[in-house]
Amino acid sequence: MPTTSPQPQPTSGPSVAPVLSRRAIVGYASGSVGTGGFGTLPGLVLAYYLTDTLGVSAGLASLVVTVPKVWDVLLAPAIGAASDTSAARRGTRRPFLLTGALTLPFLFAAVFAVPAALTGGGAAGWVVVTFLLAATAYSVFQVPYIALPAEIAPDYTTRTRLVAPRIAVLAVAILAFGAGGPALRDGAGGGRPGYLLMGVVCGVVLGLGMLGAWWGAPRRGTRSASVPPRPATPSSPGRVRHVAAHLRTGVAAIAEVAAFRRLVAVFVLQALATGGMLAGAQYVATYTLGDETDVTFLFAALVAPALLVMPLATRVARRVGKRRALVGSTVLFAAAALALLPMHWAPGAWVYAPVAAAGVAYAGMQLYPLAMLPDVIAVDARERGAERAGILSGVWTAGETAGLALGPTLVLGILAVTGFVSHTATEAVAQPASARLGVVLAFTVLPAALTLLSLVPLSRYPLSAAVVDAPTSQEPA
């Protein structure tokens, strides 16, 4: 049964906005519990778990957090193509959503269930295998999930209405997992038992949110009458195979759609920045502020303002356009990150003010790209007469995954170069001054530089209205 009642968009004259059902809005928003939790908690604690609980060296830990994500980058376009094929044949992407929702909770818990006998390299091997499987399950859900807005809400304004509640739930999920996960760990006494409890509880909550998205997803595809219901790659296999062929299809899509290429570049660079800041937060709490539990307050200071300003961020996008609003958020985030640099010499409660300013910017850096993506997908489908939502979403997920993975990798690389000493939870170590400086640089200068770099492709992205409102518009490559 369709979850929306859209009206075809006429090429001239007034348009009738489609009506979104409550089930579609609530179901789509609930999926952000899964995406927010999995996108946040490993990035926040996994590197620290490896270096300060399992005794894995910073250099080896950087490989552990990167290898599963590299696999995910290769796999996501294949999942996207298979999702498109399923949508064309069955009229729905729900089987993918359900598969991811049922498998991820167990695999997520397994990442933090390293046997007591394993430390160092053995523990690293356990984490890399379980995290690879968890990342695969996540992609099976995430790729079709972010392809849904172009099908549920086939016009510019309605897509923003659909995505805004999802981003609000995303902000709540990020806050709940980012602050609550470490609190669960610390409440259980920290160390391996604390991480295990955190993994089990958070895994269950992830699965429940993802099941909500499956419940609310269309049982039969609903799309604009101007877009034929056929896949862009009808010869693609229905199962996830021939990964190289699907990866080439995704790369071709980047080459063919300039607006998409630039939007992906912006999102990847900003994912690198936020991934680096997330990974550095626990180290800042322990080695700069002097208390491991301060990570909960740091994270709350970053995310809570995003909750408060989300309605304002939506209104700003309607007034000035999504692209201009994203530029403003980007500049604010970089300035706030650089304002934190003096904490190396003068740590104190003042750091929460710049972190809160970064949180205000973070709201826009989440909302605007995700609201711009379905616009690009819709225009691509209209101009080419073929549905490529899954392929484009697969490339998007691959880019996001790469950014969020390489952010912690860069942080761990900085720690390794500056002489950080890894240890188990039962050992006490004093980090050298160079390593403590490296922690601050990874939390401040690195995110600021990457965020400012994202302004380059963003400056060449067309205004959102131009991308969507001109039925035959083509942006020069």
H-E string: EEHHHHHHHHHHHHHHHHH
Ranges with pLDDT <50 over ≥5 residues?
A: 1-17, 222-241, 468-477
Structural class by secondary-structure content: mainly alpha
Domains, number: 1
Number of strands: 2
Count of runs of 4 or more consecutive helical residues: 17
Spatial separation of the terminal alpha carbons: 40 Å
Helix content: over 70%
Q: Class, according to the CATH hierarchy?
A: Mainly Alpha
Q: What is the average per-residue confidence, as pLDDT, rounded to a whole number?
A: 82
Note the beta-strand portion.
under 5%
Radius of gyration: 22 Å
Q: What is the CATH T-level topology?
A: Growth Hormone, Chain: A
- Overall body shape: globular
Largest sheet: 2 strands, antiparallel
CATH superfamily: MFS general substrate transporter like domains
In the CATH hierarchy, the architecture is Up-down Bundle
**Cross-sheet strand order for the largest sheet:** 1-2
Give a short summary of the structure.
By secondary structure, the chain is mainly alpha-helical. The chain has helices at residues 22-52, 58-90, 94-111, 120-147, 149-152, 156-187, 191-216, 243-256, 258-287, 294-320, 322-339, 352-384, 389-417, 433-443, 445-453, 455-459, 464-469; strands spanning 4-5, 19-20. Helix content is 74%, strand content 1%.
Detailed description of the structure:
The protein is mostly helical and 477 residues long. It has a single domain, classed as Growth Hormone, Chain: A (Up-down Bundle). The protein has helices at 22-52, 58-90, 94-111, 120-147, 149-152, 156-187, 191-216, 243-256, 258-287, 294-320, 322-339, 352-384, 389-417, 433-443, 445-453, 455-459, 464-469; strands spanning 4-5, 19-20. The protein starts with a strand and ends in an 8-residue tail after the last helix. Mean pLDDT is 82; it is low at 1-17, 222-241 and 468-477. The chain crosses the membrane at residues 96-117, 123-141, 162-183, 195-217, 263-283, 295-313, 325-345, 391-417, 437-456. It comes from Luteimicrobium xylanilyticum. One of its GO terms (molecular function) is symporter activity.
